[in-house]
Design a protein that fits this description.
Elements lengths: L4 H8 L7 H4 L7 E5 L2 E4 L4 E4 L2 H4 L8 H11 L13 H13 L4 E7 L2 H19 L8 E5 L8 H5 L4 H4 L10 E3 L4 H10 L4 E6 L3 E2 L5 E2 L4 H12 L2 E5 L23 E4 L11 E6 H5 L21 H16 L2 H20 L6 E5 L2 E5 L9 H12 L1 E2 L1 E3 L2 E4 L7 H22 L13
Parallel strand pairs: 3-15, 5-6, 5-7, 7-10, 10-11
Antiparallel strand pairs: 1-2, 2-3, 4-12, 8-9, 11-12, 13-14, 14-17, 16-17
Length: 440
């Protein structure tokens, strides 16, 4: 008997960031295959992957080099713990990440997701300050940006700032100090006021992704580094979303010549193939955890699948692809083309604003009645036209694989523009295009 996967989904699955009541009323798209920048469903329909399968696919699906690396590793060992053991792939990947990262980051701690990478950075910063002794033991709190998103575990949610995602959990969270995004003056005020109690500041460099691609003004990240140094506060840069080419350079930090004390990586680390994350630390922080066993200065944190060999193999192959395929060099013209294509979109009466850094794009449709689900309407219209895009509220997100061709990029933006126009027309059938900006 043929299996009805859609019905099995409705009967048993619970999807992330999804209101299931609405989900079961629609026919799910079951992705069965993929190639390059294209996803293919169980009916054979093809869709441009406009969000890199949630911001993680880098070199396209079924990349020959990454496929071969994972298959080759399967012939050796699929998994072995890193508690008391190691393996060649983890060691080699750590060395490659240190080579690629901003200067001064010399130690790599693996986990499985961006959320755990940031959670680890927070715990490292806290424990490091405590183990320094003296006045530093009072450094037990954290600063972060408003509208921040650093993951969904409780530590990362504590330094998050998106009320829709985080408000329900406030009673479970530790207290933090929020800073206005991109406001160096407010940052200086918070760090000066709370200097003696702050362990670290955590930021998404250049772009706050889940905030709807909120782009910081030039110089803000550099100011954050200098102010942290002045006030003795550690700087954590969360490059889970911005890393591996998304802003046009390997890491966003490079664009303002900033080296953080702790760097969080995930998503694109394996090219979007397998769950793997990394928290990079300076030697100074690493040495703060050294001591005799009876001193209990150990970092007591770990995961079963830390440094999984298959994931490390995929990550090494992805880094090799960056070099052999000149991914970053070839990305520049695509970023320029994307900017040109978005000029038409930003001029549409249905669009309030376009925010972009590199390939990270947010198309803001303005404020609308949540019951209209305008962003979701655009998603459905785009799907009918052959592209997968995803909204953050009523901001449409585009972040295609870096390997997308120029012709595919043109088609993706064209489909998105048409989908916005169609969705707004269905949501406001009596409103003319010129009134849509004020329809809410």
């Amino acid at each position: 008997m043929p299996v009805n996967h859609a019905q099995l989904d409705r009967d048993h699955l619970w999807h992330p960031f999804t209101q299931q009541q609405g989900w079961v009323e629609e026919e799910p798209v079951m992705i069965e295959r993929a190639e390059g920048a294209t996803l293919i469903d169980s009916e054979g329909r093809r869709y441009l992957d406009g969000v890199s399968s949630l911001w993680c696919n880098v070199h396209g699906h079924r990349h020959a080099g990454i496929d071969a690396a994972v298959r080759e590793q399967l012939d050796r060992v699929a998994h072995s713990t890193m508690l008391g053991l190691s393996h060649p792939g983890a060691a080699e990947l750590a060395a490659r990440l240190v080579e690629l990262a901003p200067p001064g980051l010399s130690r790599v701690f693996y986990s499985e997701s961006g959320s755990t990478a940031t959670e680890i950075a927070l715990k490292m910063a806290f424990q490091y300050q405590r183990q320094r002794g003296g006045q530093h033991v009072r450094r037990t709190s954290f600063a972060h940006l408003r509208e921040a998103y650093h993951g969904d575990t409780l530590g990362s949610v504590s330094v998050g700032g998106i009320d829709l995602f985080h408000d329900a959990y406030r009673p479970l969270l530790f207290q933090t100090h929020a800073i206005e995004p991109g406001d160096a003056g407010d940052l200086e005020r918070v760090l000066a006021t709370h200097e003696e109690e702050l362990a670290a500041l955590i930021v998404e460099p250049l772009v706050q992704g889940a905030a709807g691609m909120l782009v910081h003004p030039p110089g803000f990240l550099r100011a954050a580094r200098e102010l942290c140094d002045r006030h003795g506060v550690l700087l954590i840069c969360d490059e889970v979303a911005t890393g591996f080419g998304r802003t046009g350079t390997m890491f966003a930090c490079e664009q303002e010549d900033v080296a953080p004390d702790l760097l969080c990586l995930g998503k694109g680390l394996t090219g979007g193939y397998m769950p793997l994350a990394a928290t990079l630390a300076t030697e100074r922080i690493y040495e703060g955890f050294l001591g005799e066993p009876e001193e209990y200065r150990t970092f007591f944190h770990g995961h079963t699948y830390t440094g999984n060999p298959l994931a490390c193999a995929a990550a090494l192959a992805s880094i090799e692809a960056f070099e052999s395929e000149r991914t970053l060099e070839r990305l520049g013209p695509k970023i320029d083309l994307l900017g040109e294509l978005l000029e038409r979109v930003e001029a549409m009466p249905e669009v309030s604003e376009v925010r972009r850094r590199g390939t990270m794009t947010g198309i803001d449709l303005g404020e609308h009645d949540p019951a209209l689900r305008l962003g979701h309407r655009v998603t459905l219209e785009a799907r009918e036209r052959g592209a997968i895009v995803r909204p953050l509220g009523d901001t449409m997100i585009l972040m295609p694989p870096l390997s997308i061709s120029e012709s595919e990029l043109r088609r993706l933006v064209s489909i998105t523009a048409d989908a916005i126009e169609a969705a707004c027309a269905s949501a406001y059938p009596a409103a003319g295009p010129a009134r849509l900006r004020h329809a809410a």
